[in-house]
Amino acid sequence: MDTNTVNYQKERASYYKVLVGLLLLTAVTFIQPHMFMTESTFVAQMLIAVVKAYLIVMYYMHLKGEKLITAMVWFSLSLVLVFFIIVIGIDVSNFQFGAESHITTAAEHSVGAAHATPAAH
Amino acid sequence: MSHEYVPEIATDREGNEHEVQGWQDDLYAGKLGFWLFMLTEVMMFGAMFLALAYYNTLHPQDFLDASASLNRLLGGTNTVILLVSALTMGLGLLKMRAGDVKGAKLMIWATIILATAFLIIKGFEWTAEYNHGIFLLHDKLLPESDLAFGQKLFFGLYFSMTGLHGVHIIIGIGLMLWLLKRINAGQVSTKHHILHWNIALYWDIVHLIWVFVFPYYYMIGAGGATGGH
Fold first, then answer.
1. What ipTM does the predicted assembly reach?
2. φ, ψ of residue B134 in degrees (nearest 5)
3. B70 three-class SS
4. What is the pLDDT of residue A111?
5. Among A13, B72, B126, B200, which is least packed, fewest CB within 10 Å?
6. Quick one: which H or E segment has residue B82?
7. In A, residues 23-42, which contact B (CB 8 Å cutoff)?
8. If contacts are CB pairs under 8 Å, which of residues 72-91 in chain A contact chain B?
9. Which pTM was predicted?
10. pLDDT in tens, B148-183
11. Total tally of structural domains belonging to chain B
12. Cβ–Cβ of A84/B50 closer than 8 Å?
């Protein structure tokens, strides 16, 4: 067994360092709603998640130094982000069908609203 | 059954035979292919997060109220369990690459145990929610119940996404058992460990998805001032 090579020791140390970082960030996840950015919990939580994801992808998934795969990941994430921007940033902010939509009110109310709309015409 | 490499022979128009290059040991190609698969996973869960964000934008207070009612202790415990399991899986691969096959197998077993613990805790959590009338097509999530509509959407997505994530955990356990079988058969070894590498990557993506699922469902309503406790 050859576990005394520089790489093994170095990579194992890196795994443990990332573990400590992830545990600390998980602790921050729990104290954040009571300690800081209390009015922006959602943003704070997602920022912490992004930092955790970066550590996992770079060190546990060995993306560090992988140029082609990194480019693929950025392309894919950009696609997902574009859909988020179109759907959440543009479509939802200009939502015009609140009165009759099943996604803003329960179905039975929507049915009522749908019935009410033609009557108004 | 033998798994020895049998070269494929291609014949050109003149009838000359050529050996087709085998790519069985191409670690980079194996990794690249698996990353492509993982990107489809990102897009699938990305679409679910999109639906979640969409409904969250339409029903912000209902989402905070529903999130505040989830059991953060059990969710947090599962977060730590997955986090440690990612370490054991990574260390297992590292040991395999370094030649310590026995140590690698022990680490895979540790990951399987942690994954099972995750599922058991998730089972307790879902059972408690069911007993409180919160479950798909049950009691408070039925159309006629007076639970706020946004909360019904939140819980519907919560069960769908954590359920799909749970399916991924079960698949991961199956893959790890298969990996152990291949190691025991000598088909995965220190020199040929692409399968081990990719299953470790799979486990990392399962962990990565939870890194976003946990705060979005359990933590956004944790603040007393905005969480609607």
1. 0.88
2. -105, 100
3. coil
4. 41
5. A13
6. helix B72-98
7. 23, 26, 29-30, 32-34, 38-39, 41-42
8. 72-73, 76-77, 79-80, 83-84, 87-88
9. 0.86
10. 999 999 999 999 999 999 999 999 999 999 999 999
11. 1
12. yes
